[in-house]
Design a protein that fits this description.
Glutaredoxin, 2 domains, globular, alpha/beta
Length: about 210
């Protein structure tokens, strides 16, 4: 049974026509017969630029990337080089927009930034991890996710992970998530709300307290 209705499929397929480079979606889950695998497999059928690869959560690739949560996704280009673009939990609801944005970003159709912002992003030394807590019903969350992922793609020292707060409720409690989107940076910074790229960049540039 199809997950996407014909109208939604048609809309997403038209968006994917803008993708010019191959994108690889790695699925980490307990088996190949799960809602996450079904979801991504169907999505990848909408474009010949997309491929889906399933990984056991305890495989060597998972250990190499430091995948901590399942179900989870890691997005790369065709060469499978890590881009730091992670999803923990199924990116359904409003978060389908975050996943589509990540595919466009890696597929050569991402938004173009001012050169000075690109230079600042490239100069972040890291390593830096960004956790973006979301809920699937939040219309403001995809903006925070897509900007964090863009920052990760621009700098190999950065990883950005969408975390669905209801699926990973204990982790959300650990980080005191009372409103979403909430961004938690490994340098100690936090942001709440759909912040502009400049605000996310500024938080990422702050060095961790010694």
């Amino acid at each position: 049974m199809a997950i996407f209705d014909p109208k939604t499929k048609d809309q997403i397929t038209k968006i994917f026509n803008n993708v010019t480079e191959d994108v690889r979606i790695e699925v980490y889950d307990e088996s190949e017969d799960t809602p996450m695998v079904e979801f991504i497999t169907e999505l990848c059928s909408f474009s010949d630029k997309l491929t889906c690869a399933y990984y056991d959560p305890v495989c060597e690739r998972s250990r190499e990337l430091g995948i901590e949560r399942i179900p989870g996704l890691n997005l790369t280009r065709a060469d499978a080089e890590d881009q730091g673009v992670r999803f923990s939990g199924i990116p359904a609801g409003h978060e389908i927009n975050s996943l589509i944005a990540a595919i466009l970003e890696l597929g050569g159709a991402g938004a173009v930034l001012a050169p000075e912002l690109e230079e600042r992003a490239a100069n972040i030394k890291g390593p830096l991890d960004i956790k973006v807590f979301v809920t699937l019903g939040c219309p403001h969350c995809p903006g925070a996710v897509l900007r964090s992922h863009k920052l990760a793609v621009m700098n190999p020292n950065i990883k950005a992970e969408m975390i669905e707060a209801e699926t990973f409720s204990q982790l959300a409690m650990q980080y005191d998530v009372s409103a979403v989107p909430k961004m938690v940076f490994s340098n100690g910074e936090e942001l709440i709300g759909d912040q502009p790229f400049e605000a996310i960049l500024a938080a990422a540039e702050i060095e961790a307290a010694v």
